[in-house]
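step 3/5: co-fold with NAP
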Amino acid sequence: MVGAGFAGLYALFRLREAGWEVQGFEAGGGVGGTWYWNRYPGARCDVASVEYSFSFSEELEQEWVWTERYAPQAEILRYLDHVADRFDLRPLIRFDTRVESAVFDAASGGWDVRTSDGEVTRARFVVMATGCLSTANLPDIPGRDSFEGELLHTGRWPHDPVDFAGRRVGVIGTGSSGIQAIPVIAEEAAELVVFQRTPNYSVPAHNGPLPTDELAKVKARYRDLREKNRRSMVGFAGWAPAPGGSAVALSNDERDEALEERWADGGLWFLSAFNDVLFNEQSNELVADFVRRKIRAVVADPAVADKLTPTQVIGCKRMCVDSGYFETFNRPDVRLVDLRETPIEAITPTGVRTTAEDIALDTLVFATGFDAMTGTLMRIDIRGRTGISLQESWEAGPRTYLGLGVPGFPNLFIVTGPGSPSVLTNMVTSIEHHVEWISDCLAHLRSEGYATIEAAEPAADEWVAYVNSVAGITLYTTCNSWYLGANIPGKPRVFMPLFGFAPYVDTCASVAADGYRGFTLTEADVQEARQ
Ligand code: FAD
Ligand code: NAP
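step 4/5: write tokens
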């Protein structure tokens, strides 16, 4: 088991319960994954905590008290620490231990897993719970390493508090991380300069304390809520009103009224005000225009508002959820630098040089995201049945079957892998689903006497074509997003997640019910005969 975030922890729990001997490896010094690494100011979830949490244990669900609608990073980390202790998972994990390679030995049908401490562990199965957003992207801007101030990345934030008081701070990047961090850093810093390449859409979180009676109401109907999440397209908002019809079908006033209602509620569910926002350009434009008007109404300086106003399709890059982001640009000590007008030429020992000026900074924060979905897996030297590496196999883009298995790589499972709905869902719902599917699959192999399971080439080909065809009917492919790998120079441009959680769950269930249709299962004696 590689990784000790939500996915690794649940997989360790579930597989140990099923009677397997399990060994976890975690590069970090503790559990938590995303919530261990992303300690930047303002970090919090943007799926409501009562849903962005495990459902596998009713006791855990009932006993844990979420204090805010969207819990801050420290609280989510405390929760995952609690999970690790409550279910006694820590002894199963080797911390500060990075998996460097995993090599399949066709003769014995097992994996040799080499770790940074020089050890090699033999495993029959390997589960990659390595995360979709776990490899920080630190762009190679000329002069980056010459900076003499403090250089930070949101996804690798120090454990000790960072002191911004009296400092001139620069933030590069205005995705979800930047948009969360900027208002909080602005409160503390002497001056803040925001370097923006692409403006983003953001909806207010309206975060606040979670009243005890509201939490109690959720706890009373948790089973129903979780079931609805599993039946939804995105794995959350089980309680929310269903998406309305087409945005195009309404008058301007009716549409604005519906959008105002969602805006007042806040959060990601805003995008589902209408059922065609991600499919119909005209509908998308109407919703995007509503948000643009909101930005202009908040930002006092019309020139700054213009720069902050996105033009791309709304939802194409992941929509952000903020607490006072646009308001921050009304502060006299906050400045926006539009990199489309004046790109960064270099980072210097004293700050950032754009094509227009030298900007002196004491602290420079990279909120520049991740080599998402494939980056972490591709940094491990994974070699399959024929000795081919995952890097070679995925040179033109990731190829999986169901996002769970890779042809040529037997007994290797990926949690929330490319080709699964993963980052387009509440990730905890997806993670629980994957782990349970993998656990059921392993039980099947054991009870039926199979030694190996491997995604078949044609099944993976069909699956990749299907994922692409679904993406093709959405508007997701119309901009340069990390979903497409467009944020990493040289990465193949392929839409990596699958849109639509509920149909995916049904497909996975039918594949299993059909004796793991599309996978090749090899019996133990056949495996032995091959030796
Ligand atoms: P991770 O939490 O990323 O854990 C993977 C672990 O694997 C890491 O600890 C890493 O160190 C370890 N690892 C990787 N490679 C190796 C290796 N070679 N050897 C050993 N260990 C390795 N999703 C939502 O659904 N809702 C949200 O509100 C939300 N908010 C987010 C906020 C932030 C700031 C970020 C960055 C992501 C957010 N996400 C959110 C996505 C989030 O990544 C997932 O929700 C979830 O935490 C992923 O859990 P995981 O266990 O799959 O992966
Ligand atoms: P991101 O969405 O990829 O945003 C990175 C930002 O950095 C973008 O504005 C990007 O601009 C900019 N950037 C990248 N390279 C640059 C360069 N060389 N020069 C200038 N600007 C550059 O990354 P993120 O904000 O860390 O978020 C990643 C994902 O993590 C989110 O989409 C979300 O899924 C998850 N997340 C969720 C939350 C939450 O609210 N719960 C918080 C943080 C993260 P371009 O757009 O022009 O590329």
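step 5/5: annotate
The pocket of flavin-adenine dinucleotide (ligand 1) is lined by residues 2-8, 25-28, 33-34, 36, 38, 43, 45-47, 52, 98-99, 129-134, 177, 376, 380, 415-416, 426-427, 431 (CB under 6 Å).
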